[in-house]
Specification:
Blueprint lengths: L8 H15 L1 E3 H8 L3 H13 L4 E3 L2 E3 L12 H6 L2 H11 L8 E4 L3 H7 L8 E5 L2 H7 L5 E4 L4 E3 L4 E3 L1 H8 L3 E6 L3 E3 L3 E4 L2 H13 E7 L11 E4 L6 E4 L5 H9 L3 E4 L1
Helix pairs in contact: 2-3, 5-6, 8-9
Length: about 260
Amino acid sequence: MGRSFSKSTVSRRAQILEELDSKGQVFVSELSKSFNVSEVTIRNDLAHLEKQKMLIRARGGAIKIKLYHIGIDTPFSDKQKQFFKEKQRIGKAAIRFIKDGDTIVLDSGTTTTEIANNLSKFKDLTIITNALNIASIIAENSKINIFMPGGFIRKKSLSMVGGLAEESFENFFCDKLFLGVDGFDTIHGLSTANVEEGHMNQVMIEIARKVIVVTDSRKFSRRQFAFIAPISKIDVVITDSGISEDDKQRLIKNGIEVIIV
């Protein structure tokens, strides 16, 4: 950051918000050095500001809340750049739940795309997906069968949605669903920015024996426009270490396995 700041709590928090407004993202380690205070102090500052709905805590720091307010439907190409390393780790960790002979559903999304990128070792899988880019990735593996429904193409998410796509999915059952989300409130449930995506996700959940949510930690404590499902529908959550202890414990108390990568 290259600047030194006043150390009083009120002043420090105000200057953190100024820095966040300027850069869009701040990091605990950098703020600690700039203010000459401990990283614990900075984390407490960020926690306080998050409770005031002034930022969103993320791995190693915080991001600008107005970039991610309710209802934003971010294009796939923009989402792909966000928290990329975390999504890669989540994608690799998800593979442990897959075995040859499985029929799995891969929802559209940047995190589920990382799962698709790690399927090359399998020799006998059937993949059902509504994602154009995921189908393209998997098509390169001659030993994996792919089913893709018809429907309306959502260009922002590279996905098939609508009544035809939903009806196609209703004709199948699958062993596991890997579901990405835009919002994950551990009290109110899963949500997404688009109503049609929400309906599609609901159908996917109903045909799956096991529901595995794959999401980076910034999606927690956030609700988006369209409701998907309560957390009672979830079996496993795979996320990064940015998840709060409160959210983690709430999931565990509800019988959900939590994998942190």
